[in-house]
Amino acid sequence: MIPLRKILMILKSIDTMIALKQIFKPGRIITALMFTFLSLPAWAQSNGAAVMSEEVVFYTMVGVVFAVAILVLLVAIYVLQLLKVFVAKDATEEELANHLPPWWKGIFYLTIVYGIIYILIFHVFKTAPLQEEKYEIAMVEAEEDAIARQSTQTDTFDETTVTFTDAPSDLGAGKKIFEMQCAPCHKADGGGSVGPNLTDDYWIHGGSMKDIYYIIKVGVPSKGMIAWEQLLSPERMRNVSSYIMTLVGTNPPGAKAAQGDLYEPEGAGQ
Ligand code: HEC
Question: For 26-41, what is each residue's pLDDT tens digit?
Fold first, then answer.
């Protein structure tokens, strides 16, 4: 004899199936919606819009994720119902009504709160820049920095405003340039060979920082000293000029005889 309970169970399962069919009607609508969302990009492109606006992409993605989430939920409900009906036929209601652990639920609700806050901050109120915007901001800042650096390097001095630099890094750079470019004619120690001695107090073109800078810049082409302006930046010419200033008075052995006039620095003898 079939127990009444079993019959009731079967009846109930039929009921569930009908109920599920009802549920899956909206499911079909959602599927249709999903396909519409998915075909949106293709549609936008065929319409001649070369680049889809970021907003459209974003809301399409949200829509798709939402639809998928609902589908997953429906499948989960369906599976749960099946489990309830077919696998755990004899189980009591109480046994299946296990509650999720509170810590799990806590985390779940936290993710929802986090998601809402995230969307509000980054997409609705736009209070914080997205990754791409951050990158663009950084690029603009770097460009401004580069322009600022260039202007201090090239535009802020010429022979009328150049000043001696005693920064070790500048003098070191000047020494390197001198040894590579100038030593063939002025000797590495500045004592002079083809070019004049740069270590004494006698100068053909003047011995001030500005004089030295200027003669390096424009050169003396008729005597074989080229205009270094074409090869060296103002900063480099300043560094090498400063380095030459430090050579004055070093009296290297075998230095060339003095040429030009005795140069007396302004303010000397005071
Ligand atoms: C091809 C050889 C040559 C090279 C390389 C050369 N010079 Fe000269 N330089 C000369 C000659 C020659 C003179 C003298 C010009 C004159 O008689 O008016 C001179 C003059 C100078 C003077 C002026 C000296 C004075 O008594 O007024 C300075 C400063 C100077 N050179 C610096 C440099 C620096 C710095 C470099 C490297 C960046 C350099 N020179 C590279 C040949 C050279």
Answer: 666 667 677 766 666 5
